[in-house]
C-alpha cells in the first residue's frame, strides 16, 4: 500500500473533512458528541470519526492536489479496486478498512482515531461514584445516647431544610403585607370601573336629546331648485353646404394606415441538465429518480460506461431561474451538483 497516499488521505480528512476516491466512494468526517459511559466509568470528549459514502464517486481533485506524483494516485486506486474485486479487505492505516460484500456493495469500518482538530489528543476521564458514609454517635450511658440521638436529629433536620423556620411575628407581618396589597389592588379596580362608567355617561347614549342652536330654530328650508338643461343651439339651413364632388382624372386621397406596433419578442425557452451523481447500481438509480419525481423535478439518466449518470432537466427563460434551481438541488441533495449541459452543449467542470 502506498504510504504517501494514505498519509495524504489522513491530512485531507483532518483539514478539509472529506476526500473522494474516484470510482470507489468518498470518505467523510462526521462529528460525534461527548459520551459518558457509566459501565466503563469514563467520560470521553467530543470527537470525529470517518464515514464512507459509496454513491459519491466523482473525483473532487483533493487527492491529486495533495500527492506529488499523479502516478502514485493511479497506482493506489487501481490496486484498491483490484483487491476489493478479489474479495480482500483494504486497510487504510489510521483511517479504517474497506471491504466489498457478496452483492457488490462497498462497506467501510472506521478506526477509533479522532479526526477532530478541536479535541484532538484529549484523553478520556475516569469517573468514580461518590459514596456517602453516615456516622452514628455512640454514648456511654443511656441518657447520653438519647442526648446524642436528639442532637443528631436536630442537625439533620437543620441541614435538610433549606428555609429557616418562620416565627409567629414573621407570619403576622406576611399576612398584613398580603392583605394591604390586596386592598390596594381592589381600590385600583374600583377607580378603573368608575372611570369607565363616567366616560360612558359623558358620551351619552342614542336616546340622549341633543341641544339645538338658537340660530337654527324656526328657519325655513332653503329654496333649492335644479337648473333646467340648456336648449341645443339652432342651426341655419342656408349655412349647410354639401361637399365638393371629385374632379375628373383625379385620384381620391387615401390615408395611409398606421404601422402596427412592433410585437415584443417572446423570451426564448432554454433547456439545461443539472447532474447530481454517478451511480453504479440500478437500485440506487431507481431510488434517486423516484425521489426527484416526488420533489416535482424531471429526472434525467444517461449511461456512462458501467455507471449511470442521474440528473434533472430544467426549462428556463432567464439565467436567474437556472441558478435558483441549481442552488435548490445542491441544498436538497448534494453540494457536488453542476450544470452538465445547456441547450445540447456540454458544460461539465474541468
What would you say about this model in short?
The chain is of the alpha+beta class and 350 residues long. The protein has helices at 3-15, 62-66, 70-86, 142-160, 168-203, 282-294, 319-332, and strands spanning 18-21, 25-32, 35-37, 42-44, 47-53, 90-92, 96-100, 106-110, 125-126, 270-279, 298-304, 307-316, 338-342, 345-346. A five-stranded antiparallel β-sheet has the order 11-12-10-13-14. A three-stranded antiparallel β-sheet has the order 1-2-5, with helices on one face.
Characterise this structure.
The structure is a single chain. By secondary structure, this protein is an alpha+beta fold. Among the domains are: 3-126, no CATH class; 270-346, Alpha-Beta Plaits (2-Layer Sandwich). It is 33% helix and 21% strand. The strands form four sheets. The chain has a five-stranded antiparallel β-sheet with strand order 11-12-10-13-14. The longest helix has 36 residues, at 168-203. It starts with a helix and ends with a strand.
Uncertain stretches of 5 or more adjacent residues: 140-145, 205-212
Q: Characterize the biggest β-sheet.
A: 5 strands, antiparallel
Helix segment count? Answer: 7
Q: Looking across the biggest beta sheet, what order are the strands in?
A: 11-12-10-13-14
Kindly state the percentage of residues in helix.
Answer: 25-40%
Order of helices and strands: HEEEEEHHEEEEHHEHEEHEE
Q: Give the DSSP E fraction (strand runs of 2 or more residues).
A: 15-25%
Number of strands: 14
Q: Estimate the mean pLDDT confidence.
A: 77
Structural Rg: 46 Å
Shape: flat
Structural class: alpha+beta
- Span between termini: 29 Å
Amino acid at each position: 500500500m502506498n504510504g504517501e497516499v494514505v498519509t495524504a488521505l489522513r491530512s485531507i480528512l483532518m483539514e478539509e473533512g472529506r476526500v473522494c476516491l474516484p470510482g470507489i466512494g468518498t470518505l467523510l468526517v462526521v462529528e460525534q458528541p461527548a459520551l459518558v459511559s457509566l459501565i466503563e466509568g469514563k467520560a470521553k470528549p467530543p470527537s470525529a470519526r470517518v464515514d464512507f459514502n459509496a454513491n459519491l464517486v466523482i473525483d473532487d481533485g483533493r487527492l491529486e492536489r495533495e500527492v506529488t506524483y499523479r502516478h502514485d494516485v493511479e497506482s493506489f486506486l487501481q490496486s484498491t479496486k483490484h483487491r476489493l474485486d478479489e474479495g480482500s479487505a483494504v486497510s487504510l492505516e489510521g483511517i479504517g478498512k474497506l471491504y466489498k460484500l457478496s452483492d457488490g456493495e462497498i462497506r467501510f469500518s472506521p478506526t477509533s482515531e479522532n479526526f477532530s482538530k478541536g479535541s484532538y489528543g484529549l484523553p478520556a476521564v475516569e469517573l468514580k461514584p461518590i459514596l456517602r458514609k453516615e456516622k452514628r454517635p455512640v454514648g456511654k450511658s443511656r441518657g447520653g445516647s438519647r442526648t446524642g440521638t436528639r442532637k443528631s436529629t436536630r442537625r439533620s433536620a437543620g441541614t435538610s431544610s433549606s428555609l429557616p423556620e418562620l416565627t409567629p411575628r414573621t407570619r403576622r407581618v406576611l399576612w398584613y403585607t398580603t392583605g394591604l396589597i390586596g386592598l390596594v389592588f381592589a381600590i385600583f379596580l374600583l377607580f378603573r370601573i368608575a372611570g369607565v362608567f363616567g366616560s360612558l355617561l359623558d358620551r351619552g347614549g342614542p336616546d340622549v336629546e341633543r341641544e339645538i342652536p338658537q340660530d337654527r330654530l324656526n328657519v325655513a328650508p332653503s329654496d333649492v331648485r335644479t337648473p333646467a338643461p340648456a336648449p341645443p343651439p339652432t342651426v341655419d339651413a342656408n349655412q349647410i353646404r354639401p361637399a365638393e364632388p371629385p374632379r375628373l382624372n383625379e385620384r381620391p386621397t387615401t390615408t395611409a394606415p398606421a404601422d402596427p406596433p412592433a410585437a415584443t419578442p417572446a423570451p426564448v425557452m432554454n433547456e439545461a441538465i443539472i447532474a447530481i451523481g454517478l451511480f453504479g447500481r440500478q437500485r440506487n438509480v431507481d431510488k434517486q429518480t423516484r425521489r426527484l419525481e416526488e420533489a416535482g423535478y424531471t429526472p434525467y439518466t444517461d449511461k456512462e460506461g458501467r455507471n449511470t449518470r442521474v440528473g434533472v432537466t430544467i426549462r428556463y427563460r432567464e439565467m436567474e431561474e437556472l441558478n435558483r434551481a441549481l442552488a435548490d438541488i445542491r441544498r436538497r441533495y448534494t453540494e457536488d451538483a453542476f450544470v452538465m449541459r445547456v441547450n445540447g452543449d456540454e458544460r461539465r467542470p474541468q
